[in-house]
Design a protein that fits this description.
Layout lengths: L15 H13 L2 H8 L3 H15 L4 E4 L2 E4 L1 H24 L6 E7 L1 H18 L3 E7 L2 H9 L5 E7 L9 E10 L10 E5 L5 H13 L3 E6 L3 H9 L4 E5 L7 E3 L11 E8 L6 H13 L4
Parallel strand pairs: 3-4, 3-5, 7-8, 7-9
Antiparallel strand pairs: 1-2, 5-11, 6-9, 6-10, 6-11
Length: about 290
Amino acid sequence: MDPIRYINVVTVQFDIDLLRNFVAIAEAGGMSRAAGRVGRTQAALSQQIKKLETALQQTLMTRTGRGVTLTIDGERLLAHAQKILRTHDEAVAELLGESLSGSLRFGCPDDYAQVFLPRLLQRFSRQHPQAMIEVICAPTPRLLERLETHALDMAIISVPESRERVQFLRREAFVWVGAKGAEAHKLDPLQLALSDLDTLDHQAATSSLERVGRKYRIAYASGSVAGLTAVVRSGQAIAVLTRAAVPRDLQILQPSSGLPKLPSVGITVRTANRYMSRLISGFEAHVRSALPTL
C-alpha cells in the first residue's frame, strides 16, 4: 500500500489595496502615472507589485520604455481584480447607504472623451452600479448651450488661460499636431484642420499665426476630433489639440518647426441646475476629485 502523502495548500488572500493599485497601474499604463492617481510613490507601487507577484508566484507585468506591459498572467489577474473591486465597492456603498441611482446627462468635449472618460465612468460605476450616465460629446460652446437650456445636467468644459488657476481642475497645453513623417507644417499658406470658429483651439491657432504674420488657410473645419485627426493623418494639414489628447500615431510639432507658441487652457466642470440631485452632486464631487489625477 502506498504511503499517505500530505500536500500543503497555500491559500492566497487578495489584499484590496494591492489589487486596487495593480489595477491603477494597468489602467494608467505606467508606474509614474498611477502614482499620481493613488497618492503613492513609484517605489511604493513597485514594492506592492513585487509582493503580489511573490504571493502568486507569477510575473504580472514588465517594464518597457513607454511604461509597463501586462503579461498573460497579469491580464488574467486584471480581469478578476476588476470584478473583485467592483463587487467590493458596490457592497461598501450599499451597506453604508451611499449608493446612488437614477440617470444623468453628462457632456464632454471630444478631445477629452478618449483620455479621461473611461476611467472617470469606470470608477464611478464601481461604487454606484445603479446610476446611468448618458454621455454627449461636443465642443465646449455646444455643451454650454445645452447646459443653458438644461439639455445637460453637467459638463466638463475648457476655459481660457487665466491667472486664477484655482478655478481649474487641471491645465492642459495646446500643441500643434501633424502626421509623422509629413511636412504639412511647411506649406505656404499653412493648411489647418480646426474645430468650430468659437472654440478655443480654433481661436488659439488663428490668433497665434496672425500675431507672427504667418499665412494660413482653413482646409477642414469640424466639431469632430475624429474628423480633424483623419485629415491630419493624411498629411494634408495640421491641427491644434490639447497635449493629453494627441493620438500616439500623430506627432507634436516642436518649436523648431517654426510654428508659434500656443496658449494653455483650463479644464473645469459646470452644472446646469442650481438645486442638484444627490446623483448630480455626487458625480460632480467625483469628477472634481478624480479629474486632476488622471
